[in-house]
Write a structure and sequence with these properties.
CATH superfamily: Alpha/Beta hydrolase fold, catalytic domain
CATH topology: Rossmann fold
Structural class: alpha/beta
Number of helices: 12
Strand content: 15-25%
Distance between the termini: 59 Å
Order of helices and strands: HHHEEEHEHHEHEHHEHEHH
Shape: globular
Length: 322
């Protein structure tokens, strides 16, 4: 029996009709996807007034983690800028520090924010807490070099999409528990939060081709968890496991009604509220996974992006005592 599913937004459905879709990921498909050429960073940045700097920072095990530091060109560097620490998507198995970079570049352009994007190691080559630890080391370096980078350490926002959103949530939990560095707010865009893959929405989007399906989600989680058993999965890896969501910074979560992560994302916002925290949640009707990144020209995509930007404008206001 076919499971009922929310309908796609009509404009998105028409755009998606021309996109080749798959339902499964396996090592062979992943190897093929990883070989597809990325858009050169010069092309990605050619329409933006951006100064770019590449740095490497040591991970906990001594590996070198790359960071791209993107700051507005021709600006007054005497004023401390806000910072968006960006974590890319790709199911924890694909992507690099320039994936979905157009999203934070809009904030660089609008708010004069410096964007720091981390090239965390990918599964299955890296497993367990390695990915979130890489993100943490990059964030720690950013905060420690705030004066050198010209950023305001009180206005560092952690943001990410899909797997990057899940890693952003895990990173924020980790920074809270370690007491440093300070995170002003977290923006979780269709975040990948729960390795259990058992929600209604994960079942609704299994067994059908899509941008990110229940089967693809299971593959991504198996890749990152490696040999970990369910009872040994750290909350920093699968943030939905966290029992304590108190004392988190202001949080923005959005998702589509027609995607795998809908229910785990709405549950995460609900539990932040239950812990006394502040979360803003948007479920975009008819949105599939990553709709606004794939088709930013669609009406619902433009609305989603504008709504995020409006929230970010509030989150990035200078502290009244600064």
């Amino acid at each position: 029996m076919t499971m009922a599913r929310p309908a796609l937004d009509p404009e998105l459905r028409e755009l998606l009709a021309d996109m080749p879709l798959i339902s499964q990921l396996n090592p062979e498909v992943l190897a093929h996807l990883r070989q597809l050429p990325s858009t050169p960073i010069e092309s990605l940045l050619e329409h933006w007034q951006v100064d770019r700097r590449e740095v490497t920072v040591p991970a906990g095990d001594g590996a070198q983690i790359r960071l791209a530091v993107l700051s507005p060109a021709h600006t007054d560097r005497t004023t401390a800028a806000p910072c968006v620490y960006w974590i890319h998507g790709g199911g924890m198995v694909m992507g690099d520090r320039f994936s979905q970079i157009d999203i934070p570049l809009e904030w660089l352009d609008q708010f004069g924010a410096t964007v720091v994007s981390v090239d965390y190691r990918l599964a299955p080559e890296a497993t367990g807490t390695t990915l979130v630890d890489d993100c943490y080391q990059g964030l720690l370096w950013t905060a420690e070099h705030a004066a050198e980078l010209g950023i305001d350490p009180a206005r560092i926002i952690v943001a990410g999409a899909s797997a990057g959103g899940g890693l952003a949530a895990g990173l924020t939990l980790l920074a809270r528990d370690l007491g440093t560095p300070a995170i002003a707010a977290q923006m979780l865009i269709c975040p990948m939060l729960d390795h259990r893959n058992t929600t209604t929405s994960s079942r609704q989007y299994s067994g059908v081709p899509g941008v990110w399906t229940g089967e693809m989600n299971a593959f991504g989680w198996r890749a990152v968890l490696g040999d970990l058993t369910d009872d040994a999965v750290p909350t920093y890896v699968s943030p939905a496991l966290a029992n304590d969501l108190s004392n988190l910074p202001d949080t923005y979560i959005d998702t589509g009604s027609a995607e795998v992560f809908r229910d785990e994302d709405t549950d995460y916002a609900t539990r932040i509220w239950a812990a006394g925290g502040q979360a803003e949640l948007h479920v975009w009707a008819g949105g599939f996974h990553g709709f606004d990144a794939l088709y930013p020209q669609a009406h619902v995509s433009a609305t989603a992006r504008r709504t995020r930007t409006d929230w970010l404008a509030r989150a990035l206001r200078p502290h009244p005592n600064a």
